[in-house]
């Protein structure tokens, strides 16, 4: 028991360290895939980093997450920009990753960028006469990620149904999912990705879950981790498809937990301990795919994602030992319902759709200042927030859009935006543009 408690503390510290790692490796706005070797911001890495920060406890109001959204504003403002990703078979799945991250944003602007990206993805599929054509090596992976994004975004139920049907039609011959359509043999990482997606969307039945978890378990390596063809991207990493790696292990761990695998089972314990191998990470908590590879953004994302899910359940059962006793005597399907409910509740607590003062870390002077503000100033500040919810603006644009003119009015508007920055509703980027992410109006 003491050993398990020591591991829980270690995981808690690791999760905090991983969150700080993502904050420290941010470039001007986004992130690079391998910060030790690259200085070019990537849609993939930026999406993974925003999601990791959010999942691991960073509020959406944090500067790092807001700057991450700015990366998309600057680089992908419309569908034409997204087409460069979507028409390249090697980068198409960077778009649904980006969709998942952008869907967290609560402003009209981030939603518009989301819909532009989704439109580019759908248009590419329509022109190719199927949602995602066969020339994309990662077509099943892309469909799975898109489903996750649509689930967060709450958009296009018709498209979600088509994607679910397509994935079920494209199974491997053993009943799981491979990296290609109707592959000879399933891949544990891809099977885990799709199983998790189906469970999150509540479209997997008990029988399908049993089949897919059986495939994942059967493909576990003796060292407690999982391997798979998923690590072939990017090709230059040079990881063997037979060697356990961080992405496959973390993804299989999460899928099994969501499918109802007992938290203290041998397969879960060995997977967690595989991820806790100190040789997989550097001193700053950046993770490698394997011991012999460099620290990479997405390996760190998956390590944090897998360990977080284990910790959430561990803390839940520690707090409710009576539920643990019931769960131990229940079927996997019943445990799956409990586990998914616990994970969903965690994510709801992370959701800032309804901003609260504690989460946004407003100063203690916020309420007194608001209450003492003259009604005219309050209305003007509300209009400023409405304008910034449409698009970023600088002080001059805001003054003009408010129908004001002259130096005195500009100074007044400057005072308004300074106040809104102080209380945490907007922030200013180096170019002078003011930016809002949260939907303050709900």
Description:
By secondary structure, this protein is mainly α. It has two domains: 2-75 and 171-350, no CATH class; 363-435, Winged helix-like DNA-binding domain superfamily/Winged helix DNA-binding domain (Arc Repressor Mutant, subunit A, Orthogonal Bundle). The protein contains 20 helices and two strands. It has helices spanning 2-24, 43-55, 63-75, 79-86, 94-102, 108-127, 139-153, 157-169, 188-200, 206-218, 246-258, 266-275, 297-319, 321-328, 332-350, 357-360, 366-372, 375-390, 395-401, 407-422; strands at residues 427-428, 434-435. Strands 1-2 form a two-stranded antiparallel ribbon. Helix 4 (79-86) crosses helix 6 (108-127) and helix 7 runs antiparallel to helix 8 (157-169). The radius of gyration is 23 Å and the shape is globular. It starts with a helix and ends in a 7-residue tail after the last strand.
Query: Helical region count?
Result: 20
The low-confidence runs, each spanning 5 or more residues with pLDDT under 50, are: 352-363
Q: Classify the beta-strand content into a percent band.
A: under 5%
Distance between the termini: 45 Å
Would you count the extended β strands for me? 2
Shape descriptor: globular
Q: Describe the main β-sheet briefly.
A: 2 strands, antiparallel
Offer a quick outline of the entry.
With 442 residues, the chain is mainly alpha-helical. The chain has helices at 2-24, 43-55, 63-75, 79-86, 94-102, 108-127, 139-153, 157-169, 188-200, 206-218, 246-258, 266-275, 297-319, 321-328, 332-350, 357-360, 366-372, 375-390, 395-401, 407-422, and strands at residues 427-428, 434-435. The protein folds into two domains: 2-75 and 171-350, no CATH class; 363-435, Winged helix-like DNA-binding domain superfamily/Winged helix DNA-binding domain (Arc Repressor Mutant, subunit A), CATH 1.10.10.
């Amino acid at each position: 028991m003491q050993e398990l408690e020591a591991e829980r503390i270690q995981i808690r510290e690791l999760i905090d360290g991983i969150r700080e790692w993502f904050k420290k490796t941010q470039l001007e706005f986004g992130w690079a895939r391998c910060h030790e070797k690259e200085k070019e911001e990537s849609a993939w890495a930026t999406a993974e980093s925003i999601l990791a920060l959010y999942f691991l406890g960073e509020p959406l109001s944090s500067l790092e997450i807001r700057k991450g959204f700015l990366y998309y504003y600057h680089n992908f403002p419309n569908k034409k920009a997204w087409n460069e990703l979507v028409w390249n078979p090697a980068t198409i799945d960077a778009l649904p990753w980006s969709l998942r991250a952008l869907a967290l944003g609560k402003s009209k602007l981030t939603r518009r960028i989301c819909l532009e990206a989704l439109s580019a993805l759908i248009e590419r599929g329509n022109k190719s006469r199927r949602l995602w054509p066969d020339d994309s090596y990662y077509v099943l992976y892309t469909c799975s990620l898109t489903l996750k994004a649509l689930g967060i975004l709450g958009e296009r139920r018709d498209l979600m149904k088509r994607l679910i049907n397509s994935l079920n039609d494209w199974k491997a011959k053993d009943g799981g999912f491979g990296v290609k359509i109707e592959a000879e043999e399933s891949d544990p990482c891809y099977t885990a990705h799709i199983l998790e997606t189906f469970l999150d969307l509540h479209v997997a039945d008990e029988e399908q879950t049993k089949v897919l978890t059986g495939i994942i378990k059967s493909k576990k390596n003796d060292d407690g981790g999982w391997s798979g063809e998923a690590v072939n991207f990017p090709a230059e990493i040079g990881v063997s498809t037979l060697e356990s790696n961080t992405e496959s292990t973390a993804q299989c761990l999460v899928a099994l937990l969501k499918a109802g695998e007992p938290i203290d089972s041998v397969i879960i314990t060995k997977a967690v301990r595989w991820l806790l191998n100190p040789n997989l990470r550097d001193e700053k908590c950046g993770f490698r795919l394997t011991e012999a590879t460099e620290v990479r953004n997405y390996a760190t994302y998956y390590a944090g994602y897998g360990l977080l899910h284990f910790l959430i359940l561990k803390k839940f059962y520690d707090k409710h030992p009576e539920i643990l006793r019931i769960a131990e005597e229940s079927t996997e399907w019943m445990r799956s319902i409990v586990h998914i409910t616990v994970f969903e509740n965690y994510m709801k607590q992370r959701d800032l759709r309804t901003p609260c003062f504690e989460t946004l870390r407003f100063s203690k002077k916020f309420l007194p200042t608001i209450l003492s503000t003259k009604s005219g100033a309050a209305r003007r500040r509300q209009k400023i927030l409405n304008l910034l919810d449409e698009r970023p603006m600088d002080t001059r644009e805001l003054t003009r859009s408010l129908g004001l003119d002259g130096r005195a009015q500009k100074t007044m508007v400057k005072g308004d935006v300074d106040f809104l920055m102080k209380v945490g509703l907007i922030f200013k980027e180096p170019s002078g543009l003011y930016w809002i992410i949260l939907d303050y109006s709900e």
